[in-house]
Amino acid sequence: MTDDAQLEKVADLSEALSTVSRLRILTSLAGGAGSVGSLVEATGLSQPLVSQHPRVLRSMNLVTVSRSGCDAVDALTDHRH
Asked: Which of 1, 17, 25, 42 is buried deepest, with most CB atoms within 10 A?
């Protein structure tokens, strides 16, 4: 039987995936890592939205962030190992 902690995790993941904006960002990142600027261009979303949503995706371990000079670059988290 599934315990409450597992159900809570599934609920949090469902919430993280519940917006079209976040799904657009994830779809764009499926093609490769991207900075805020490249994600704005690829998704057609505003810069404030693109800056806000990856934080939620990072908190669910769906996206990781690295630095390239002054830019933050987001990428899908590799869960294959």
From this structure: 25
CB 20 within 8 A of CB 49: no
**SS3 of residue 78 by DSSP:** coil
Taking 70 as the pLDDT cut, the residues of the chain under it are 1-2, 81
Q: Is residue 45 part of a domain?
A: yes
Residue 30 structural domain: 4-76
In a domain, 55, yes or no: yes
Count the alpha carbons within 13 Å of 78 in the hemisphere toward its beta carbon. Answer: 4
